[in-house]
Amino acid sequence: MNRFGSFFKPMTWIAALLLAALVAGCGADQTSGQGNALSAATAPPLGTEQVYAVLGGSTVTNTGSSVITGNLGVSPGSAITGFPPGIVTGVTHAADAEALQAQTDTTAAYLNLEGQPCTSDLTGQDLGGMTLVPGVYCYSTSAQLTGELRLDAEGVSNAVWVFKAGSTLTTAVNSSVVLINGADPCNVYWQIGSSATLGTTTSFVGSILALTSITLNNGASVSGRVLARNGAVTLDNNIVTVPVCNVPPTSIPPTLSKSFSPDTINAGGVSTLTITLTNANGTPANLSGPLIDNLPPGLTVVAGSVSTTCIETPVPLAGWFIVDTGKVGLTAEGLIPANSSCTVTAQVTAAAAGTYVNSLPAGALQTDHGNNADPAVSTLVVH
């Protein structure tokens, strides 16, 4: 025998054992413990839909004493029924510009979630009884939850979970989603390829973004959002609450800009004043004081022309943006969407020729992310 034979033979067995261990490790269940770092879940971009607890595509119907903490809307449909006896603590929008924008933003978030690569394929497995670390969990067809699903952040405050179902999501009676070790309901998302149905008294966590419809059976509750793009949202004695998300410790102060269009008019003509509020943070910037733009003397607001794309926070207020012949702005009841901008616009006119310099000073825009550091100035010339 070759004198190396006795050496290579045991080495061959060792290599085989190492290979077997490696293969076994690659096939290990990733539904608990560490997820796949190469395919980490990320929160989708959120716009105006983030203040909606319930948003339907065709209709929103309610039976019984549901409580909606946040805004309620429908678009392109217009029917909302069952409120009262249902209670909405926010603002209701039916087939208006605000609801349409919320649907547009929901679509953008839905497509973002749909495009995230999977950490684990759970097709055919019930979510009940699982403990899942952050990741993107996928079902090629239907997802089912029977019992308790635990989401473990492992102490990571910004941990994100994305669940993707090719067709439906269904939960059984008394099912629940439980957050542990610092998991945040703000960071749980469910992208559903057709419709979602939550069983009676299900306690659910996360924002559901469904292509078609969402049904909450009697007594089901959601800490998150219920957003249906094309179909109906059906409620029955439910509680749906938009969660309060943590503001990051390091915030970027908002910015202000303004413009007149056109910037030159004849006396008695009309120009559109646009004030733009920009928020570069990943969470909304909530106004902590009123934003008031006092126009220069001689420049006046055309009656009925003031509007805003900024979001009214979930408090039913009348006249939350300021309407006055000599000033425009917002009360302290609005917010600027995360990673986005919103505007206040008004048509203005002047009877006398002149140069009208309109300015907002540094610090005029006060939010929980800080105040604007630079002034916003624009000039209108009237001939």
Task: Please characterize this protein's 3D structure.
This protein has 2 domains: 37-241, no CATH class; 255-382, Immunoglobulin-like, CATH 2.60.40.740. Helix content is 10%, strand content 42%. The chain contains 2 helices and 38 strands. It has helices at residues 5-26, 97-114, and strands spanning 52-56, 59-63, 67-69, 71-74, 79-81, 87-88, 92-94, 120-121, 131-132, 135-139, 143-145, 148-152, 161-165, 169-171, 176-180, 188-192, 196-198, 203-210, 214-216, 221-228, 233-236, 239-241, 255-261, 264-265, 270-279, 285-286, 291-294, 299-301, 307-308, 311-312, 321-324, 327-330, 334-336, 340-350, 354-360, 366-367, 370-371, 376-382. Strand 36 (366-367) and strand 37 form a beta hairpin.
Provide key terms for this protein.
Immunoglobulin-like, 12-stranded parallel beta sheet, 7-stranded parallel beta sheet, mainly beta, 383 residues, 2 domains
Please outline the helices and strands.
Layout: H1 5-26, E1 52-56, E2 59-63, E3 67-69, E4 71-74, E5 79-81, E6 87-88, E7 92-94, H2 97-114, E8 120-121, E9 131-132, E10 135-139, E11 143-145, E12 148-152, E13 161-165, E14 169-171, E15 176-180, E16 188-192, E17 196-198, E18 203-210, E19 214-216, E20 221-228, E21 233-236, E22 239-241, E23 255-261, E24 264-265, E25 270-279, E26 285-286, E27 291-294, E28 299-301, E29 307-308, E30 311-312, E31 321-324, E32 327-330, E33 334-336, E34 340-350, E35 354-360, E36 366-367, E37 370-371, E38 376-382
Parallel strand pairs: 1-4, 1-20, 2-5, 2-21, 3-6, 3-22, 4-7, 8-10, 9-12, 10-13, 11-14, 12-15, 13-16, 14-17, 16-18, 17-19, 18-20, 19-21, 20-22, 24-38
Antiparallel strand pairs: 23-25, 25-34, 26-33, 27-32, 28-34, 29-34, 30-33, 31-32, 35-38, 36-37
